Amino acid sequence: MSNNVQTKAESPMTEQEISEKYNGGKKVIDFVGMRKIFFIISLSIIGIGIICNFIFGTTLDIQFSGGATLTFSYTESAEHPMDHNALHEFIQEKTTDKITTAFSTDLMGDTGNKVSVQFSGNNSIETDIQKNLEKDLQAQYPDNEFICLEANSVDASMGFSFLLKCLAAVALASILMVIYVTIRFKKIGGLSAGVMALVALFHDVAMIYFLYVIFQMPIDSNFIAVVLMILGYSLNDTIVIYDRVREQRKLMGRKTEIGTVFNVSATKTLKRTIMTSVTTFAAILIVYIMASVFNISSVKGFALPMMIGVISGCYSSICIAGPLWVMWRRHKAAKKAEAK
Q: Cα(203)–Cα(201) distance, rounded to whole angstroms?
């Protein structure tokens, strides 16, 4: 009889028993069991991004590549509207340098509508083309009152140095995050938790980067700012899940299979994670809409990748970092069993 009781105690719990005992009778989502689906989705998106990268290439803003920027103010009305595409084409015809144009509206100041023209690769603002651009615009659009407000240039070597410093900041932030997670979650395999959190962060950075590639947005300081913010945001999501795993493991016991512990923990934090992400996404979406209404391109260039980063961060914390961590822990447990 004692043998029967022992066998029954050691037998694994069914899904129904787990849900009733640890999740209030609600279904426990098998995130670990669906890991192949999650990995295929992520790898497919990354594959599409790599293909787009070969097709479109990567464009660096003059902050990193060097170049010149001319900023003009202009007016427009119902009788004399401004076609942004036509204006871009007109300026491009005047130079052999590749240009990018950014339009904005200064509602609080006196400059009204503005257009910034960036000449990539040419860090001099003394060329005849750029000197005469104001006159050319005034001649082409006599009713729009083009006036040059400012002219700036960035040396290519300085831009490259700035890029290296930004990348170093991202790398340092990533290393510190791994160290923090390793120390804080030592009881559940801190190093494995930290490494897989870093993998999820790289996943999110890749999603943001491919967004820039697909939309042919130049890599600028906004990109670095978004990456640093998403690193913190995504890591916070991952830490919340790891924290619940640590608590749940105490309740369920160390003999409980690690995948089961993670599934229960992730299911319990799912609602909170989604609601936090939806709230953040909605706030950024409002910012993006307002920036679109008032044509503030710099804010749009920040808000759009942030929205993608929030979605990716929510997804990677549960569907990438967690299952990978479980796979690591299972592999380590299997090695220990073989050694014994």
A: 5
Residue 170 in tokens: 């991202």
pLDDT category at 4 given cuts 50, 70, 90 is: very low
Q: Could you give the C-alpha distances from 218 to 95, 213, 243, in angstroms and in order? A: 19, 8, 38
Amino acid making up residue 260: T
* CATH level 2 (architecture), domain 13-59+159-339: Up-down Bundle (1.20)
Q: What is the 8-class DSSP label of residue 154?
A: E
Give, to the nearest 10 degrees, the angle between helix 190-214 and helix 35-56: 40
* Phi and psi angles of residue 30, each rounded to the nearest 5 degrees, phi first: -90, 75
Fold classification of 67-154 is Alpha-Beta Plaits (3.30.70)
Per-residue pLDDT at 109 exceeds 60: no
| CA atoms of 217 and 301, how far apart (whole Å) | 8
Q: Cα dihedral angle (244, 259, 229, 39), rounded to 10 degrees?
A: -160
Tokens coding 58: 């990567």
CB neighbour burial string for 171-193, b if at least 16 within 10 angstroms, e if fewer = eeebeebbeebbebbeebbbebb
Specify the pTM: 0.79
Task: Sketch the domain layout of the chain as residue ranges.
Answer: 13-59+159-339, 67-154
What is the torsion angle, in degrees rounded to the nearest 10, for the CA atoms of residue 89, residue 93, residue 95 and residue 101?
-10
How much is the pLDDT for 98? 78
Distance CA 218, CA 305 (A): 12
**Structure tokens, 66:** 């060097």
In terms of Cβ atoms closer than 10 Å to its own Cβ (0-12, 13-18, 19+), residue 88 is: middle
